[in-house]
Amino acid sequence: MAEWIGRERRARRCYGFDEIALVPGSRTINPNEVDISFKIAGKSFKVPILAAAMDGVVNVKFAAEMSACGGIAVLNLDGVQTRYDNPDSVLEQIAKATSQKATALMQAVYTKPIKEKLVARRVSEIKKKSGTAVVSCIPANAERFSKIAISAGADMFVVQSTVTTTKHISKEYKSLDIYKFCKDTKIPVIIGNCVTYETTVELMQTGAAGLLIGVGPGAACTTRGVLGIGVPQVTATVDAASARDFYYKKTGKYIPIITDGGMNRGGDICRAFACGADAVMIGSSFARAKEAPGRGYHWGMATSHMNLPRGTRIYVGTTGSLKEILFGPAKVDDGSQNLIGALKTSMGSLGAANLKEMHDVEIIIAPTIQTEGKIFQVGQRVGMGS
Question: Which residues belong to the active site?
Fold first, then answer.
């Protein structure tokens, strides 16, 4: 599988979403009759999509509305929601700031310390709105924040960093014992992020309820550019899915994998499920929602899993409501809206009645999938040519 890249050095060829296509099978199904639900820790969700724990994407209101749509939105406990009593005013300032002033403003915003009382308050606010309260933080804050969040009624807890392993070595500080944390935490724990077969198996052995797969593919993630680290999402998802299936055969425990990042169109999401994902986590698509607190901006913290320098702010624009992005009707032609409709239509065309069957559809290497026959789209800057 590896190719020679120089004397005595080989490298494995890996693939991203734009390099593959899905092949229709011998049957088709009415898209309205396919089952796209997924389960994690015994709980079933109608929408197999998680909104990423980004300050510009998820606040209390967004989390509640995503829950009402049947999905999950993850609230970032390391961001503005737990630093400010009125985070909306802070987010509004960031959204309105000029590019010249944004960096200094972001640096100032994230120097304010986290208030533990706000951790509990945000969870309680989501629950009061009948939402599923799923919250996230970095490993250094996990033990402290998890206790507070659980007391406030959190449903799931996410521990997320750029790269997560069970063997973190440090003499400077005490690292999180993931085995102990998963065992002691009273609610399901999702761990991220990882990309290799071996690490996926090891993290599943910790007792995690689910794993986030992806290093470097996010729209706002600078890991590949800054650190040179990352694996294209097709290969990362396929490897993780293989590890999940091996672990299931060995233990009888099915631990879902959630492909995190690199998807902003319906076709990307469909390909992620074909590669073996049980659910997907996306950020930039939801940052475009009118309900997103960032008003069309997508950003993170230097201490978050996104590995963003403080002050990094990416404008993705607003294109519609959350419901339009998930269920349509689409008002744009670039595939960024009606994500669920796209998934159901793809599954119907492929003959996959559920997500498990989606894992078995034929995949081909198709590097010209973005350009083949698209001369008019490119010329008119519409659809895939926009």
Answer: 221
